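Inputs:
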Amino acid sequence: MRARLTFLLSGMTLTLMQLAFAQDGTLSLPKIVEAGNGFSIRSTGSGKATLYVIGPGQVLKQDVQLGELTSFPAGSLYNAGHYLVVLAGANSTESGSFDVIPASKPADLSFLAKPSRLPVGMHNAITGVAYVFDAYHNLITTPTPVSFELSSPSGAVEKHIVVSRDGAASTAMDSTAQQGVDKFVARIDQVSSVRVVGQVPGDPCGLKMTVRPSGQQLQLVTDPVRDCNGNSVPDGTIVTFTETYNGAQSTVDEPLKHGIAEAEMPSHDGATFSVASGVVLGNQIRWAK
Amino acid sequence: MLKPLLILGALFTAVSSIGGAQVAVRVETPTLQGPRPLPEQTATAAIRDYLQSWQSLRAALEQNRTDLLDPAFVGTAEDKLAATIQQQTTLGIRTRYLERSHDIQIVFYSPEGLSIELTDRVEYDVQILDHDGVKTAQHVTARYVIVLTPAEVRWRVRVFQAALK
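Outputs:
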């Protein structure tokens, strides 16, 4: 009990000493300085000393006259961070610290959009991440609303507003139903950053062919090949025609030309023909003379 | 070399030795705001590389050598630290940063996996050496916000900034 009381009294004494020291402190510092703003440091006493302002982001050193106000003009300290202040005189060294916070006005967005090209009609497939910076490229960590807009050539706009946390904001958007080049914009007030997202047709949908005689052969022709949103599948996409007859199978790969694919295959009574493109299977026709 | 055991999903404390000094490393459960899950291996690598960046920082600012920043820092963080080293050189100053503890939390993993943001409540001592005379040694507690991006073989620090606690 006695030991505990002694410990308590010692602690109180120490606290009182610290308070007394704080009241007699010879450095008067700002608590917070906005990046790029001017600030002043006041010292007491007399004689000459050297003032250091030290942080990983910046270092300042200045000879000062004790007892005078030392002013740092705007632009002296512009990197956000925690700074130590040391006043080294002939007989003593005083110290303190303050924080430099990012400028309140956003001036730059670091915007990353992915992917740059994707099929239409994909859910949450386009992602955007924005980091918010001030004019000195300090990360603005206070919550800031960031607007993400994805606009398609048809004029349709999908818009999300996301409040940044610790300087970062992200969103996910659906790709639109129409192929073309979309604009993906991240914006805060007048500050914006634009990325381009190419949207290409998806897989063929409702792949259909017809078969007709062509001399001794049969001609197989697809209908115009489109995706499920009605976009034309690009020329060059491979379409595979397959003939199955008497247990044997033969295939022909043909690229789309002008939106359709066609092939000639041997004519066998009772043969079965099928069409496919990638993993998409089309219709099947049994040929009977 | 820091070799902290990193167990994500649970609070964790490890003590590592850097140049004889003990550094306590605590990794808290990630509070991710993004949709992409963070693989444990990725988180471990990012934190390991971040902790190593402090060694680069310490060596670079103590020796006033910008080349020591290169493996660990990139972009804005590297530019700003390099500028600090230039200022120190001009002023005849060196600074020695000795970490005491880290309390790290991953707060953001971008959906495409190309950036990780973490916060670190870090305690360290700073010695200021002016023309090799130690002017002062101060203990600092600060909250840092760090953004890491992947490079060829490691995560590199792109944003390194003390924020208000």
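Remarks. Residues 22-101 of chain A form a domain with the Immunoglobulin-like fold (CATH 2.60.40.2550). Chain A has three domains: 22-101, 108-200, 209-286.
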